[in-house]
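This is your field. Please look over both lines of this record.
***
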Amino acid sequence: MEHSEHKPHDCCAAEKKTGAHAAHSKTSWNATAHATLHCLTGCVIGELLGLMIGVTLGLHPYASMGLSTVLAYISGFSLTIFPLMKRARLPFKSALKAIWLGEAISIGVMELVMNSVDYRMGGIRSGSVFNPLFWEALAFAVPAGYIAAFPVNYWLIGKEMKRCH
């Protein structure tokens, strides 16, 4: 095996290929789907916590969106940095340096879309997490964030600015 640190079923199989068209192989779509889902997991954790706190405390929608974005960055980066530190035995600063740009762009796109959908649908202005509108808006925002970030992650992986995790 060319790269012994990767397992054969590793989502990053596309990254092991060489040649000018490696980034456009069928496997890269799988790597992109996995990387986007990984990013979505971190974003949803932060998004949900931020929106729940903001709505429960009656914060202005923009303050709630800001809080959810900050928490999404924290949870998204944490889900990437800490496993990388453990797997590659990197110190925090080196792990952050290795992933910050790709993660920042991916999370930024995802949060922009998720918060926009939530705001437009009124979930963030629903007044309570017990209002079905809060959850309906979130149910539309999550897939919208995934769809928006998918081509961005495809591009980032192709430019070697992001790896699947």
